[in-house]
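Internal ticket #5521
Category: modeling
Description: The requester needs a full-assembly model to guide mutagenesis choices. All entity lines are attached below as received. Residue total reported by intake: 330.
Assigned to: D.W.
Attached entities:
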Amino acid sequence: MTKLCVIPGDGIGPEVVPVAVRVLEKLVPGLKTIEAEAGWTCFQRHGTAVPERTLKLLLETGAGLFGAVSSPARKVEGYRSAILTLRQDADLYVNLRPVRSWPQVSPQQDVDLIVLRENSEGLYVGIERMDAGTAIAECHISEAACVRLARKACLVARHRSARRITVVHKANVLPLTGGLFRDTVRTVLRDEGLDPLVDERLVDVAALELVAAPRSVDMLVTSNLFGDILSDLASHWCGGLGMAPSLNWGDRVALAEPVHGSAPDIAGSGRANPIAAILSAALLLRYHWRMPELAGRLDTAVEEVLRELTLANLGTTTTAEIERAVLQRL
Ligand code: NAI
Ligand code: MG
């Protein structure tokens, strides 16, 4: 039986996640869902952003759908970001962020790329200190993390019949960390016979290429912070944050998550776009549950819905209208 741990979170999370769950329920008969808490509201209620029960349920079900959480802008004693905690504690060591063109909402057609972001270390180890007036942040790059990231890259490359795999780094300035990242990832890709597809870019050049020639980009494999920034930049081509899905992925567990945050500016208005959450559910189907045919059906349904929107409706369509339209086409 397919099981799903549902973690709506804060803000628009509880508005878009139930839509994606109903879509999954229609596609996967007998899907068993279990709801769990996490986030800022949860912290205020229970004193922890990720209760033990939530982590336990996610590990038991092996698959989760996460909405978004709010984070305080300043340090709050005892608070740690729920999504960072879940990524660490469930060992979700890679983040898949596909970006493709969609009818009407994309500023350019025929973009189809995916960013693979290392999800467990880099600057996100969050080790900062003050030393005589200087703020210092540590960046950890380990060979083991690069190897497992590169192995996932091989899987994804075969899955999407990749035509190009670009390793993105900044080894010219940081030869030790950036160099270890580049060399380790490239070695694994070479050993897997993918060398003919592989090239590399410095992160600044990769950013320019994503803007100037997005159609030439296929797969980007990069470290945690670079992946965070480049994937948000790339999401411009799919129509913005309301359209951008992601999958946190480990060996046994996956947690689907729209790239957007809790969007407090529109929460409660009924206008949150649920497509990022729906497409995140499609990533669970495609990569984790290995049901690519169902994922394809869902992508097609979203494509049809977007094609049929009139330009006058774009941007004013409600969460409920999009849900109805997608469910109708499944
Ligand atoms: P955000 O992604 O929440 O919102 C940025 C802009 O995009 C806003 O104008 C918002 O209305 C719009 N937007 C986002 N998702 C949308 C959707 N589905 N449909 C329509 N419009 C959408 O980022 P922001 O404003 O920087 O952060 C708000 C809160 O979210 C903060 O507390 C932040 O820490 C948190 N956050 C959480 C993330 C997560 O849970 N993974 C990721 C990013 C931010
Ligand atoms: Mg981000």
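Resolution: model delivered.
Comment from assignee: Residues 107-238 form a domain with the Isopropylmalate Dehydrogenase fold (CATH 3.40.718.10).
Ticket closed.
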